[in-house]
Amino acid sequence: MKTIDTVTLWSASKEVSLLYSLPLNKALMAAAFEETSMGALVWVPHAAEVWKKAQIIQKVSDTQVEVRYVADGAEYDPEDGITKTFDVRDIAKLAGEVSSNAMPICNTFEKLGVEDMCTLNHLHEPAVLKNLQLRHGQFIPYTYTGQICIAVNPYKWLNLYHKDLYLQYLNQPRDELAPHPFALSSRAYLDMNVHGIEQSILVSGESGAGKTETVKIMMNHLASISGGGDHGSLVIDQVLKSNPL
After folding, report:
1. Which end of the chain has fewer CB atoms at under 10 Å, N or C?
2. 17 assigned to a ligand binding site
3. Which of the residue ranges 12-21, 71-80, 97-106, 129-138 would you say has the lowest mean pLDDT?
4. 199-205 and 41-46: which strand pairing?
5. Using CA of residue 210, residue 214, residue 217, residue 223, what is the dihedral sign?
6. 210 marked as part of a ligand binding site
């Protein structure tokens, strides 16, 4: 599993920001080491792949576990079957588990992953990376985590921004459409009209992650649905030129 550049987006307002606070079901995020069945599939740290799928063989001590590497997919894996011992506390810390004696359990994924990672039975760093990797491999750049939209730069232009989608994301419920930044710009626009207060959309990410292009996509969408027309496009160009991202 390789690391990938990401852009994280979310929208909020002064009055309705609490609507975006989603409680996490901690019971689904971790499996206590003492209760983890032998033979369970888990994620363990790996120097080249970041996280690697493995199967628990035995509990070596109160804090250590022996695992066997397992091939993740149909491709040949030269490390398949190799055994190694790990400290559970180190794994839990790296995976962002809620318990220091928790092992990050593997989810069962479909080919396209899941559209909203809050629906994963086990939500931790390796699960997030695996889901994004699956979707990136199918040229699906956007994935939700609750009200947050994570974008993975495909480094190619995809036909996902045509004007037929503008009103769809404005008028249809979000869960009926694929994850998209149009959903965030539509939500900000609707909340501005309903609540009569300013809205903010925060776009963050490392260099090369696609922040500038994402801002252009959402601003063009906002200009269109607000009736800005050609004047709106001119304003967008002026804003982007005067505020380098």
Report:
1. C
2. no
3. 12-21
4. unpaired
5. negative
6. yes
User: Quick one: tokens of 81?
Assistant: 């079957």
Q: Identify which of 178, 144, 133 has the alpha carbon closest to the alpha carbon of residue 158.
A: 178
> Virtual CA dihedral for 212, 215, 219, 222, nearest 10 degrees?
160
49 in a known ligand binding site: no
The residue to which tokens 């990797």 are assigned: 133
Percentage of the chain modeled with pLDDT above 90:
42
| pLDDT for 230 beyond 50 | yes
Asked if 11 and 187 count as a contact pair (C-beta separation under 8 A), the reply is yes
In the sheet that holds 50-59, the strands lie side by side as: 41-46, 50-59, 64-69, 83-87
Q: Is 6 known to sit in a ligand binding site?
A: no
Nearest-angstrom CA–CA distance, 121 and 127: 10
Domains of the chain: 3-13+146-242 (3.40.850.10), 31-103 (2.30.30)
The answer, yes or no, to whether residue 227 has pLDDT greater than 80, is: no
C-alpha separations of 10 from 21, 216, 236, 240 in Å: 11, 15, 20, 19
Is 213 in contact with 224 (CB distance < 8 Å)? no
Instruction: Produce one character per residue of 91-127: b if its CB has 16 or more CB atoms within 10 Å, e if not.
Output: bbebbbbeeebbbbbbbebeeebbbbbeebebbbebb
The answer to the question of whether 206 is labelled as a binding residue is yes
The token duo for 124 is 């931790």
- What is the Cα–Cα distance from 148 to 48, expressed in whole angstroms? 28
- Is 198 within any annotated ligand binding site? no
